Amino acid sequence: MIHYTCPETEKSGVTTVIRNHAIHLRNLGNKITFIYGKGGGLEGVKEIYIEELCPDHPEISKLQEKILSRKLDETNKKEFVGIKENLKKKIRDAIRGLDVVIVHNIPSMVFNFPATVALNELASESGSKFVFWIHDSVVLRQEWKKFLKAWPFTELHYKHPNVSYVTITEFRAKQLSQIRDRHYRLRDVKVIPNGINVGEYERLDETTIQLREKLRIKDCL
Length: 221
Fold this sequence. Notes:
The chain has 221 residues and is an alpha/beta fold. It has a single domain (5-220), classed as Rossmann fold, CATH 3.40.50. It has seven helices and eight strands. It has a four-stranded parallel β-sheet with strand order 5-6-7-8. The chain is globular and about 70 Å long.
């Protein structure tokens, strides 16, 4: 799994979902590797820290500011390529031998374009299967429409036979399939709702759990 940040020390809506994914897949007997730029501390998984994955990294934030202010000149583009290649090498080393690489939000958000481009290239070059998991996408937001014709925004929603897309609701999947610009339109997106750990969500004490089991009312809640 790859994301900008990693639970337990980093907490957000996305990291909560990722945490539940990792724990569930681990409990099913899978070996989980988490690749991230900030956070860590998720028990029972292998963690690989790559500092340039974090949007707050000085080089990344400086470059992002230039991109978002439309001040990306030829010199900055060379800098972009250098950062991207460094990041790509680190990610390539981290995913070597992995069967499936699940990338959360990086393919559809504007927080770290070198990471987006690096992962697009690796998806087409690597022997691993890639899953691009979309919780949100700037392509669907009106305030970003004027940016979408320019590189590196055109790297968002990258399409390749080695990439499968997943999103969180039927509504989001419909939005993605109805994007007017064919470059960004995504069809055949699988829908997997955000899951929760029911036990952690309910936070019931042991006595209540035992009583519920005894009365056989668990399935009614």
